[in-house]
């Protein structure tokens, strides 16, 4: 199991926090996560992911369901930053 921190910006932080799409997308793959937001009010959010299979995660993130979930959640794909545990 690998741990990753992922940051990105969203259109609406409250909508993103309440979205069911992450559970729908990641739950069946055994991927767990915790969500974070900037208390200063920016549109930047983050997640800590526990990913059992990084290859499967990367494949999932290139799929149409992932693109649809990101669009629904208002994710700005060009702002995604992925950090791997050292």
What are the segments in which pLDDT stays under 50 over at least 5 consecutive residues? none
Strand order of the largest sheet: 2-3-1-4
Quickly count the domains.
Answer: 1
Count of helical stretches: 4
Give the overall shape, derived from the CA principal axes.
globular
Determine the structural class based on helices, strands and strand pairing.
alpha+beta
Top-tier CATH class? Alpha Beta
N-to-C span: 13 Å
- Main β-sheet description: 4 strands, antiparallel
- Indicate the CATH architecture: 2-Layer Sandwich
Q: How confident overall, as mean pLDDT?
A: 96
Query: What string gives the helices and strands in order?
Result: EHHEEHHE
Radius of gyration: 12 Å
CATH topology: Alpha-Beta Plaits
The helix fraction, in percent, is 25-40%
Strand content: 35-45%
The number of E-state strands comes to 4
Concise structural overview:
The protein is of the alpha+beta class.
Describe this structure in words.
The chain is an alpha+beta fold and 86 residues long. It has one domain: Alpha-Beta Plaits (2-Layer Sandwich). It is 35% helix and 38% strand. The protein has 4 helices and 4 strands, in the order E-H-H-E-E-H-H-E. The chain has helices at residues 13-18, 21-26, 54-61, 64-73; strands at 2-10, 32-37, 44-51, 75-84. The protein has a 4-stranded antiparallel β-sheet with strand order 2-3-1-4. The two termini are 13 Å apart.
